[in-house]
Amino acid sequence: MKKAIEERFKAYDRSKRPTLMAGMGPIAHEKGTTFRVWAPNAQAVYVVGDFNDWKEDANPMNREADGYWSIDVTGAAPGQEYKYIIVNGEQRLYRLDPYSRQVTSSIGNSLIHDPAFDWGEAGDFRSPSWNDLVIYEMHVGTFNPASEDQVGTFQRAAKKLPYLRALGVNAVEIMPPMEFPGGRSWGYSPALPFAVETEYGGMLGFKQFVKAAHEHGIAIILDVVYNHMGPGDLDLWRFDGWSEGDGGGIYFYNDRRNETPWGHTRPDYGRPEVRQMLRDNALMWLDEYKIDGLRWDSTAYMRNIHGNDNEPADDLPDAWSLMQWINEEMRELAPNNLAIAEDLKSNAWLVKDTGAGGAGFGSQWDVGFVHPVRAALTTSDDAARDMNAVEQTLTFNFDGDVFKRVIYTESHDEVANGKTRVPEEIWPGNGQSWYSRKRSTLGAVLVFTAPGIPMIFQGQEFLEDKWFSDTAPLDWDLAKEEGGIVFLYRDLMHLRRNLRGTTRGLTGQHINVYHVDQKNKVLAYHRWSDGGPGDSTVVVVNMANRTLTDYVIGFPAAGQWALRFDSHAAVYSPDYEGQVSGDAVAEEGEYDGQPAHGKVNLGPYSGLIYSQNPG
């Protein structure tokens, strides 16, 4: 992979000088450092830093073709600070390096970075298959800080990796850690897209975190933001002094296409140098950080000015071709890595192959799952729960592949901006109540047994009830107080991944929702890969506050069906009383369109998982 990226960077090596290294930004070597920057409207560019005592005219850069400038500075070494001085008419602009891997801060100086890092055996880590993924969305700044008044770091987050591994998580999705203004942010305001947030631990801290995660068998999926930049502390804004009207200059559209909900800073997807920068950024995470996948933020606002479907006049076709280009390159360099779109428009073309005209993503967040499922969970009146809506979302897929969608009931967007955690929405102010526990964990049953790639948001597994804020850390005391619920999530994740060898069907493509009882609020469905004992898995969900005994449903085969999970089991909470469930015996005889039938017993607001013993 590294060789392929180096070959691509050779396009930048316009100079005949043999000492110049290929690439953008600072490229350290044995004798010094090559610097290269794009500033097409500059009359002159200088690099200043520790290596020349910040003497402004000591190292004038040489003009290359297509607006690039470069210089090789003998003695410039990793760890030294620097900046560019860009001269455009009377403007003398002091700029951080857009390709900086390290900075002192978003308003400080760039640092020459040392690319060397010992990955050990973790460098050969291979991400789990997509049908085996269980994703945990994490915000580093609030996940596990040392105290409430401190910002979380990669080092602190790494301390919880053994916990996540035991839980059953095998992929962590990191909310954007690119350098942003200040020390606290959701991360969706990147000031420098190649640099890692200093407060989190910077470049080295992130690499150490990824290495530790891989050593624990956990893949890392990274949120990237290409729909806008900044807008705060944005050195890219009018980078070389040129702009049109109120536009942002060379890196951005300078007309109405720059409009986004987060500022007028949409990158110019049609400009070759900007396209190259975004492509280089995406591939850098795969190559230099060994990232296992990318989740693209709000792709709807890349492909359309207003983030809408079916508005050709406002579409941005250059963004679509950019997504195709990067996804094709990513697939070529790392076929097992997953590219996820957060588009939220249920547009199947996002996950179609580029050869068919699609954007080439491997999967996308499914807004069509979270909203009907949350509605069914949070409605206070049992009679109002729409079982048909739940059935429809269980059977939905994109492009004929169930794993082309990521399914969830909580994400950073769904628990903030006026929204809250599912347990809190069920009973405001009493998120640890019996009702909140019972119905929110029904949501977990659906997430981990429905077709798709399951995802939970940090703290969901112990009923965190605070709405998400970048200033409010997780309450890890709840993980002890709600230890039974943590075990419930653990059992669901283990079953979803077939770690016990009895529920392979949950990793398969197939589902048949064959029992929908709108009156009693019961669903039953069959999940399978190839079918048969140890594979065929039956899920039964009771979404009403009543116990049902001798309840007859169909089964895919006759014989003994072992109960693998009951969300009403007393082990999960001492107030889960009146245990009625157990193994089921199915007899020959068609029922619910199935060849066999049997009786099951369901506790209130509970989910059951059955399968037959293999062999």
Task: Characterize the structure shown.
The protein has 615 residues and is α/β, with parallel strands linked by helices. 22% of the residues lie in helices and 23% in strands. The strands form five sheets. It has an eight-stranded parallel barrel, surrounded by four helices. It has an eight-stranded antiparallel β-sheet with strand order 20-21-22-27-24-25-26-23. Strands 3, 6, 7, 8 and 9 form a five-stranded antiparallel β-sheet that branches. A hairpin with a 2-residue loop joins strand 6 and strand 7 (91-95). Helix 9 (367-378) packs antiparallel against helix 10.
Keywords:
alpha/beta, 615 residues, single chain
In short:
By secondary structure, the chain is of the alpha/beta class. 22% of the residues lie in helices and 23% in strands. The protein is elongated and about 85 Å long.
How far apart, in Å, are the first and last alpha carbons?
43 Å
Show unreliable segments: 8-18
Q: Count of DSSP helices? A: 14
The general outline is: elongated
Residue fraction in strands: 15-25%
